[in-house]
Amino acid sequence: MILFYLIAPALIMFVLSFLHHRLLNRILPITTLMILIPIVYLFGLEKPYTIIGNYWVATQLNSYILLISSIVAIGVTFALVTLKRRVRIENRSYVLFYRFFALFWIGLIISILANNMGIYWIGLEMATLSTVYMIKTNQSKHASKEAWNYMIVGAIAISLILFGIILIYASAKPILGEDAMNFALLQEHINEIKNPFLFELGFVIVSLGMFIKMGFFPMNLWLANIERASFYPVAALFSGILESAILVGFFHFSTIAIEIDRGATFSFVFIYLSLTLFLVSFLIYRSKDFMRLFSLSGVEHMILIILFWISGGYYAALLHFGAHAFLKPALFLSTGVLESNGQYKISGTLRGYQGWRGKSFAVIVGLFLLAIIGLPPSPMFFSEIYGFEAIIHLANQEDYYLWIIAALIVLLLLLSIIFYKFIEIYQSMRYEGEAESKIVYTNEWSFALLFLLATLTLLLPQTTTYLKAIYG
Amino acid sequence: MIDFFIGLFLASFIVALFSGRLYKLIFWYAFNALTLGIITLLVGAQIDDIALIISGSITLILKAGIIPFILKRSAKRFHLKREITSNIPIQYSILLVPSIIIFTLYLAEPMSSMIGVNSQYIAISISSFFLALILMIEHKNIAPKIIAFLMMENALFLLGTTATYGMPMFIELGIFIDVMIAIVIINLLFKEEAIR
Amino acid sequence: MILYILTILLLLLIAPLLTGLIKSIKMFLLYKRPVSIFQPYANFNKLLVKELVISHESSAITHLAPWMILSPLLVTLLFLPPIFQGAYYIGFVDAFTIIGLLSLSTFFLMLLGLDGGNAFGGMGSSREAFIASLVEPAMVLTIFSVGLIGKNLGVGNVALNLSTHFPVEHAASFLFAGLSFFILLLAENGRLPIDNPETHLELTMVHEAMILDISGLYLAIIEMASSLKFVIFSSLFVTLFIPYGLNLIAPLALLVFVGKLILVSMVVALIEVNGAKLRLFKVPNLLGIAIVFAFLSLITFYLLGV
Question: What is the pTM of this model?
Answer without folding.
Answer: 0.87
